[in-house]
Design a protein that fits this description.
- This protein is mainly β and about 525 residues long.
- The chain folds into 3 domains: about 5-170, Galactose-binding domain-like (Jelly Rolls, Sandwich); about 185-330, Jelly Rolls, CATH 2.60.120.260; about 360-535, Sandwich (Jelly Rolls), CATH 2.60.120.
- The protein is about 0% helix and about 40% strand.
- It contains 1 helix and 36 strands.
- Strand 4 (about 55) and strand 5 (about 60) form a beta hairpin.
- The chain is globular, with a radius of gyration of 27 Å.
- This is Allantoicase domain-containing protein.
- InterPro entries: Allantoicase, Allantoicase_dom, Galactose-bd-like_sf, RmlC_Cupin_sf, UAH_cupin, Ureidogly_lyase, Ureidoglycolate_lyase_dom_sf.
- Homodimer.
- It comes from Collybiopsis confluens.
- Belongs to the allantoicase family.
Length: about 525
């Protein structure tokens, strides 16, 4: 079986996806032994730190996988890849293991997307990297030219010892909608999106931009070094999963507070090249024009002058002829989606985003506390309270009312008990309040519910008013909120009635009403097209 060992300067893996990465969902299924250090460390995103001088009950601590001494055969670790794909090679890293490193390793694989978890003696294991020598405290890069498909891999070390990180590189088997009319994130790693080139990735690599979720800290985003020259800019080129039309862009700066970019812009083009030569990064016919009509294959995100981003989402519809074949696997849902049902010839999709004050700003306010005061919206006044045991976030939202003085409107607090939606639900109406804003503050579990109940979430769907004095469906947005977040709908904003996703949830509603709950300020409109709510699994 052929393989090639690469120098550390080789950039072969820079255009591949780390299929085994914990950020994609890669995980250790079983292991022969992990007496000194647990095998989950193998898949961590960050490089292995030195734990020199630190000891636990079993001995010296290491960030990696380390087994007992004197194994008469070999040790093994079975890993389920975060995404099925074709494997191009491996980075086997023994950093900080010196004198206790694994002397030799081999790798086996199984490709069974619908299979139950394999055991070490499963007859389906096929060797894809033969037994090779590795050394102490160093990285070892290997490529395999035959590019086998894999869902599971087994890392073997002979006879025992330690390995810090194990990275399996390759290309994702894409999961994209079968229907060309369905919206999806065309840059997402699970769909087959790929980061082609990056101007700089000093603190965080560009391929993090298309990972699922919002990550856990700045270390799993893209961050460039500080620039010291006027007019500087940094950029990243992303190959889309399929040729298609782009409709929505989401740029997420989660965890980047004092180092987010000052500004940015996105260009796009169409190219038949499968890989992008570095010399073409600045000299292409990138465009910002006719985005809704043109079909694109690549996007170029430019940030000014430098900084960090967490994720990039490029939502669009693939060209009907853009993909030769579509996998049998179901579409990937990161959270949940709102899909305009096809009662008419066309349908539209609004992705559901995590609720943040910035994203919700044009529809209302988010009422929440912040552990990190630097993360509060600009202009928020924060003072210590309760003899220094609390922080007060002042006036996150103001109550407003435009009722005439003679109407007798009064402000009060009501309570809604909302039952959860299960399975598929259809949205057929939206409502608005033209004279007052309206606040909903989650109150947690209902009476009699046990402490073991799962955490609650609720869905927030909003739209601005259109020129015809009806909901502007192009402005329809959806958010998932936690019970640590309250919301305030601006006066006149169309919104869906409160929709709870998990279990029953109580809300305190603060609003100005006429009398004891007159419906004079509650306008309800039936939608021409029913809206299907696709809830999380």
């Amino acid at each position: 079986m052929s393989f090639e060992q690469l120098s550390l300067e080789n950039d072969t893996f820079s255009r591949c996806t780390e299929l085994s990465c914990a950020a994609l969902g890669g995980r250790v299924l079983s292991v022969s032994d992990e007496f000194f250090a647990e095998a989950f460390h193998l898949l961590l995103v960050e490089p292995a730190p030195s734990l020199k001088g630190q000891f636990g009950p079993n001995g010296a601590l290491y960030s990696g996988w380390e087994t007992r001494r004197h194994n008469p055969t070999y040790d093994w670790c079975i890993i389920k890849l975060g995404a099925s794909g074709t494997i191009t090679g491996f980075d086997i890293d023994t950093t900080h293991f010196n004198g206790n490193e694994a002397p030799q390793v081999s790798v086996e694989a199984i490709y069974e997307p619908l299979s139950s978890d394999p055991i070490s003696t499963d007859p389906r294991w096929i060797e894809i990297l033969p037994r090779v020598k590795i050394g102490p405290s160093s990285r070892h890069l290997f490529t395999i030219p035959h590019a086998p498909s894999a869902t599971f891999v087994k890392l073997n070390m002979f006879p025992d010892g330690g390995i810090a990180r194990f990275r399996v590189y390759g290309h994702v088997k894409p999961i994209i909608p079968e229907d060309p009319a369905e919206l999806f994130d065309m840059a997402h790693v699970f769909a087959g999106g790929r980061v082609e080139l990056v101007s700089d990735q000093h603190f965080g690599v560009g391929s993090n931009l298309i990972l699922p979720g919002r990550g856990k800290d700045m270390g799993d985003g893209w961050e460039t070094k500080r620039s010291r020259h006027p007019g500087h800019k940094d950029w990243v080129i992303i190959k889309l999963a399929a040729p298609g039309r782009l409709e929505q862009v989401e740029l997420d700066t989660a965890h980047f507070k004092g180092n987010f970019p000052e500004s940015c812009e996105i260009h796009a083009l169409s190219s038949e090249d499968n890989y992008w030569p570095a010399e073409r990064s600045e000299n292409e016919d990138w465009t910002l024009d006719n985005v809704e009509e043109a079909i694109f294959t690549h996007i170029k995100l430019t940030i000014y002058p430098d900084g960090g981003l967490k994720r990039v989402r490029m939502v669009g519809r693939r060209s009907a002829t853009g993909v030769a074949s579509v996998p049998d696997a179901p579409s990937v849902a990161e959270s949940c989606s709102i899909i305009a049902a096809a009662q008419s010839a066309s349908s539209s999709t609004v992705p559901v985003l995590p609720l943040t004050p910035e994203a919700f700003a044009s529809y209302g306010q988010v009422v929440q506390a912040y552990n990190d005061h630097a993360a509060t919206p600009k202009g928020t006044m924060i003072t210590p309270a309760n003899a220094g045991t609390a922080s007060k976030f002042h006036k996150l939202s103001l109550l407003t009312s435009s009722y005439p003085p003679t109407a007798g409107g009064t402000t009060g607090i009501s309570v809604y008990r909302c039952q959860p939606l299960k399975g598929v639900a259809m949205l057929t109406m939206l409502e608005r309040h033209s004279f007052t804003n309206q606040a909903f503050i989650p109150m947690g579990r209902g009476p009699g519910e046990g402490l073991s109940e799962p955490s609650r979430r609720y869905l927030v769907v909003v739209a601005k008013n259109g020129a015809d004095d009806k909901p502007d469906m192009k402005s329809l947005r959806a958010f998932v909120a936690s019970t640590a977040q309250g919301i305030v709908y601006n006066t006149g904003i169309w919104h869906q009635p409160m929709t709870v996703l998990d279990n029953a949830l109580d809300f305190a509603c603060v609003e100005t009403q006429i009398g004891n709950g007159s419906r004079e300020d509650c306008e309800i409109i039936e939608l021409d097209s029913r809206i299907q709510l696709r809830l999380p699994l």
